[in-house]
Design brief:
Elements lengths: L15 H6 L7 H21 L3 E3 L10 E4 L6 H8 L9 E6 H4 L3 H11 L2 E3 L6 H13 L3 E4 L17 H6 L6 E7 L1 H4 L13 E4 L12 H18 L7
Parallel strand pairs: 1-7, 2-5, 2-6, 3-4, 3-5
Antiparallel strand pairs: 6-7
Helix pairs in contact: 2-3
Length: about 240
């Protein structure tokens, strides 16, 4: 058994506003309690209001690292995926959220960080160093991510092309990627509505995918994105894109 090692938190000394947005953010006692309370409430909400049904739950890894990926139609998506993860991983489970939506102001940043435990990724000016830092944290901590490779919510409910960023996180690593398909979220809470409706949600998990032999370069990243997209479409009963 390895001896305990004490080290300062990676975000030690950062101002509050910078700490909320930091990719190195770690949870303290209050953060841990907030995560546990928030996700307990969300699990009850999803079960009672949306009658969430999960298929393939036994395929979900019980230990980090891993990444959950899914289609993205609604703000309900991240709630449905993250709520299924074991409670012991709450402090090490990070939804990857759009920085320009969830981290522009301190109040919204505080909610995203303290309740969702989200980490920001900026869509308009994505820094390659941010992806590298996320990749490093994923494998070294280790931790788990919830990620939507389309990059934004679908405005029609149709599945769009997966971007190569997911490939830059896992190509050449042993990290499993769990493909998922969430049905009903668009009908329950599309981007045009302010509040969700009580529609049934069904989350289907697929077998983990591994990309250790794939080259960690542009062609490899595109291969990873394509393979994951194909599996997500299969889970949703959708035809492959031409």
């Amino acid at each position: 058994m390895e001896a305990w090692k004490f080290a300062p938190a990676r975000d030690l000394g950062l101002p509050i506003s910078a700490r909320l947005k930091s990719l190195r953010r770690e949870s303290g006692l209050l953060g841990t309690l907030a995560h546990l309370l928030w996700w307990a409430v969300i699990r009850c909400y999803l079960r009672l209001y949306h009658r969430l049904k999960v298929r393939g739950a036994e395929l979900l890894p019980q230990e980090a690292p891993f990444i959950l990926v899914s289609n993205h139609c609604s703000h309900l998506d991240v709630l449905a995926l993250a709520a299924r993860c074991p409670a012991r991983l709450r402090d090490r489970l990070f939804p990857i959220a759009a920085g320009d939506t969830f981290f522009e102001t301190v109040p919204v940043s505080a909610f995203a960080a303290l309740a969702l435990n989200a980490l920001p990724l900026w869509r308009k000016h994505c820094d390659p160093h941010d992806l590298q830092e996320l990749r490093q944290r994923l494998t070294e901590e280790p931790c788990a991510y919830v990620l939507f490779p389309e990059g934004t919510r679908s405005r029609t409910g149709e599945l769009g092309r997966f971007k190569r960023g997911i490939g830059s996180l896992v190509a050449g690593t042993p990290v499993p990627v769990v493909p998922c398909y969430l049905a009903g979220a668009f009908e329950a809470w599309p981007s045009q509505r302010r509040l969700p409706r009580p529609r049934r949600l069904t989350l289907t998990l697929g077998a983990p995918l591994y990309f250790g032999p794939v080259a960690n370069d542009k062609s490899g990243w595109l291969e990873v994105a394509s393979r994951i997209e194909t599996e997500v479409r299969r889970l949703g009963g959708l035809p492959p894109l031409a």
